[in-house]
Amino acid sequence: MMYDPRMVQPMREEVTTIGFKEMLTAEEVEKDITSPGTSLVFINSVCGCAAGSARPALKLAVDHTKKPDRLLTAFAGTDKEAVAKARSFFAGFPPSSPQMAIIKDGKLVWMLERWQIEGRMPDAIAAEIKKAFDSVL
User: Domain-by-domain residue ranges, the chain?
Assistant: First the structure.
């Protein structure tokens, strides 16, 4: 299902205003994710756990002393080819949204799936993201 772009724009802006770069095509994903260094990739979503937990957690997490070189996002339900390409880097993990991954030099080094986000408070998720920043970056 593809969502009305006007409906999801505020949800996109929640992460772009804190420094995430939107990836709208498979080519952008390939270029951004395979660039040397580290990327936090966020598969954004319209679901309640994205709104109530994932996006607020990202706001808390990116205000950390250690963070990836790039903050990247694609929106499930609107950026079909970008999301599919991003998920191609998440080998061993089924598609979920929301979903967060840390990619280092083009390789997956950390993953947070929807089932690890649902029902959790943003500060607990942010602590987990910051812990990942500290251990894998």
Answer: 5-136
Q: Which residue out of 29, 33, 43, 47 is catalytically annotated?
A: 47
- Tens-digit pLDDT profile for residues 86-112: 999 999 999 999 999 999 999 999 999
pTM: 0.95
| Helix segments in the chain, DSSP class H | 5-16, 26-34, 48-49, 55-61, 80-87, 122-136
Q: Is there a catalytic annotation at residue 18?
A: no
- Measure the CA–CA gap between 104 and 35, rounded to whole angstroms: 9
CA 110, 116, 118, 122 dihedral sign is negative
Amino acid identity at 7: M
**101-119 burial, b for 16+ CB within 10 Å, e for fewer?**
bbbbeeebebbbbbeebbe
Catalytic residue among 15, 49, 54, 117: 49
* Catalytic residue status for 47: yes
Fold of 5-136: Glutaredoxin (3.40.30)
Q: Give the Å distances, CA to CA, from 92 to 4, 44, 65, 86, 87.
A: 31, 20, 30, 13, 10
Helix (H, G, I), strand (E, B) or coil at 16: helix
